[in-house]
Each structure stands twice: as structure tokens, then as C-alpha cells.
Amino acid sequence: MENPRYVPAAEELTAAENILKKRTFPELERLSESYIEKITGKPWKDEATLEKIRAAVISQKDTYWKEGKKRTVSYKGAYSVLSYIAYQMPGYVFEIAEYLTSLIASGLIRKHIRVLDVGAGPGTASAAVIKALSAFPNISAEICAVERADTHREAYSYLIPALIEKCGKNCAAEKPVSMDITKTLPDGEFDVIICANVLNELPLDDDGKTEFLLRLSKHLTSDGNLLVFEPADLENATHLRAVSRSAKEHGLTLYAPCNDLRGVPCRVSPCWSFCSYRDIQPTRLMKALGSDEEKYRYINTDVKFSYAVFRTDGHRRCGYKIPADAKRARLSQIKRHEGKRIHVTVSVMSSDIGDMKNYLYLVCDGSGTVPCYLALPAFHRTIEHEALLTAAYGSVVAVDSVLVRWNEKQNAYNLLMGKNSWCRLIAGTSTNEPCPDKAKILREMTAKQKGKKSAPRRISSVNAQKKSSARKTNPKVKEN
Length: 480
Description:
Mean pLDDT is 91; it is low at 459-480. By secondary structure, the protein is an alpha/beta fold. The protein contains 14 helices and 14 strands.
């Protein structure tokens, strides 16, 4: 049976954009609430229930942020799963759905796909597939989920079939399979394998994780995609980059986000690179958990993540190579250019991570050994910088005239841009979203502060009466 790659129509892409723009998934929210009621036998807003979920969220975060051998993440108790559904699942669903949509837009997904959801949990990646494909009714998906924890499989069996019934009629999901993925995997081939926030929880070292990815890749179709998502924090993001580099050295194609601009192995260490999407709207459950004083503990709306996409056919998202004769400095030789102005062509490996006075981007040309950042003072911004300020994550830009400076505190190089620096997009896409004018914002903030200082002090009517009375009884009293 013919199963061509799917080329989405313009109206489908618009529909997908509108669905993702809303930043809510009401069908999943309501099902999550009803699952809480099923497990507890009480209304989901019951204060005793919410308090137990709060405690589980705190416990889960404390365990999660432990590092090294002491770190063990498990989901054995019912409230552990409920806290995951409440706090972590909503943002994860959007990051996977939005990235899968980008693969569909790039023509990398076939009309019918078999999806393997590895370490499925309560159905995070499966829900993301349903969310993404709701805008593409002509694509169908058959989802196979693997999950070892009984409590997670129970939640999956409740949430995913009901979600398919409500908004995913073009998807089908099998009953989740209990399996130790470090030892065995389901038979057959899959067009899309999703390993979402699982790699960091496996009791394996980096070599073991590389071997795990190689085993997963053997279950890909000839043009399939292995999507690995990890949290954006320093430890997990840097470990993913190291494992990705190792998997590439063992023969896997690293489709994205890293670009092979120089055709040499990248040795940047540490490489803390992550992608950012727009924040989601807090769910009703998050709002119920978090009061105004403690909402930072229980409201999780950030969508920041580190990812890698592997293939076996040699196809990469960006095929651009910097010509050998191009007068562009290699970041592997950046030390010899310290204190000089150079021209560079680099991949943009972060969103803006600067403060209110500066724009700052992690960049890479695939040849360096230490982190490099493009830095632009806000008051130097001109129209010639817009290609950098609006470049999508992983895009390639050429930047002329940057001053090389060593940042001893960060153990990195800063490539300082100025009014005479010039940027242009070489490969990739623009976000098509304007970057905030920080200089203008700072001017407005300064003007407001000056206005407050120069405003005359107003005396309350009570104080005015007291001073007037004092002047009448004591002529020596003067107004301030």
C-alpha cells in the first residue's frame, strides 16, 4: 500500500498554528480533572486532595533536582502520577506537539505513521501526537506505548482512549505495554519514535544511553525520525549534547538541532543549548494548587527544552556548509583572534538569554571547543541586526565585524557586536516575531522613575490641618 510523505495544505498549517497559538488543551485538562476524581473518589478541587498533590509536586521536584548517583526518579504512588499530570505534563505536551508540527510542515511525516512512545508515562507524547494531528485530519497515526510503571499505565489507559474519542479520531492507540526498555523493545518498525524526558531517568551512564539510542534507531523505518526531548536545565541539556555527539560518532545522523557547518566533530564543552516556545496558559488545576503567594511552586507554564532528532538516512535539517575559501573565522581558532574584529558564520543555539541592557545568543559553527556568545548592547541595535534577533533556533546567520573578548567569569568567548556589525540569514527560518526593543523599554522605565522623583509631594488633608494648626499656635513652625 502506498504511503507517501504528506505535504500539508496552507489551510492545514494555518489551522495548526491557530491550535498551538491558544496555548491550552481543554480536552486534556478536563480529562485530567476527571481522572483525579476517579482515583480519589472526591471532587478534583477538594482541598485535602489538592494538598496531597502539592506535597507530591514538592517531593517530585526535590527528587528530580538531585544529581549524580543519588538521583532516582520513580512514580509508584498514585499521587506521584497525579502531581506529574498536574505540574509537568501540560508543558511537555505542547513542546512535543509543536515540534512534531514543524516536522509535518517540513514534509518529513508520511500519510500514515506508526509511533512508538517510549517510557510513555501517563501518555504525554501520545497526547502530543493527538494534539498535533488534530490539525491534519488526512494524516493517521497508530500509537504503541511502552511504560513500566503500573500507575502510569493506568493513567494512560484512562486518558488517551478518551482523548482520541474527543479530538483524535485519526489516531489509534494500543493498550500500553509493560516493558523494561533498557533490556527489550517492541518488535517492528516505526516512522516516529518519541523518547520524551526519559533518557535522564534511565540508570545508565552516557555510554549506556548512547547504546540505548542506537538500539532504538534499529526500529526506525528507512526515513523515520527518533525524537529525544530532555529538560532544559544545565545537567540534562549538556548530557543530551554529549550523548548526541557520541551517537553521531557511532553512525546515527543528527538531523537537528546541531548543524555540521565545518564538517568536523564538534567538541564544545559544556554545551548548554535549549529551545524555547511561548508559555502555555496555566490550567485550572495549576491555579487551584497555587495561591498568589506560592504559585511559583505549582504553576509551571514555561516551555523550554533540549532536544535531538536522529535519523539513519543521512538527511539533515540544514545542509549548508561554510565554503573552505570563505573569509569567516573558525571558532576552533577563536583564541588567536582575541581583541580583534572578525567575520563569523554560526548556528544560533539559543533564544535571547541576555539582560535588559544586552541581547545575548549562544552560537556555534561546529568546530569550537569552548562556548561562544554573540553579544549586542541594546543601545547599539540597528535594522542590520534583525536577522540575528529574529532567527529561529538552529538557524544559520552570518555576522560581520564582531570584537572577540574572553569572558573569564563564564569561561567563554563573547563576540561583541556594535552599530557597524551586519547580520544576514544564511539557512533556516525567521520566527517572524519582533524582538523587544530593550533600549526603548529602558528609556521608558527611566522616564517613569524620574517622573516619580520629580513629582511634588502631596500632603494629606489630615497632615495639612495639623500643620496649619501648629503655625497658628507656634509661629516658628515652618512647612517642609
